[in-house]
């Protein structure tokens, strides 16, 4: 799993695995899901991060594992 934050583009991309992406779908404004051949979600892109959370600090992302 890989997480990429692009401060310039104001976007976040979460890649769940390395399978080939065969399609994408915008499921909500600024939220795009990437699908593999088996129609499984393998990537999630969120655009306009600064508009989604006014207190967002991209330099201090926190990860929680349960």
Q: What is the helix content? A: under 10%
Average pLDDT score? 90
Strand order of the largest sheet: 1-2-5-4-3
Taking the sheet with the most strands, its summary is:
5 strands, antiparallel
Strand residue percentage: 35-45%
Low-pLDDT parts are none
- Our measurement of the CA-to-CA distance between the termini, rounded to an integer number of angstroms, reads 16 Å
Output the number of helix runs: 1
Query: Radius of gyration over alpha carbons?
Result: 13 Å
**Domain tally:** 1
Shape: globular
- State the secondary-structure class: mainly beta
Number of strands: 5
Order of helices and strands: EEEEEH
Description:
- The chain contains 1 helix and 5 strands, in the order βββββα.
- By secondary structure, the protein is mainly beta.
- The model has no long low-confidence stretch (mean pLDDT 90).
- The chain is globular.
- The longest helix is centred in the C-terminal third of the chain and has 4 residues, at 49-52.
- A 5-stranded antiparallel sheet has the order 1-2-5-4-3, with no helix packed on it.
- It is 6% helix and 42% strand.
- It has one domain (2-52).
């Amino acid at each position: 799993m890989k997480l990429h934050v692009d401060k310039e583009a104001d976007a976040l991309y979460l890649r769940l695995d390395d399978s080939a992406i065969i399609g994408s779908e915008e499921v909500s404004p600024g939220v795009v899901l990437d699908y593999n051949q088996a129609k499984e979600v393998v990537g999630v892109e969120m655009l306009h991060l600064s508009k989604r959370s006014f207190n967002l600090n991209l330099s201090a992302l926190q990860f929680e594992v349960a």
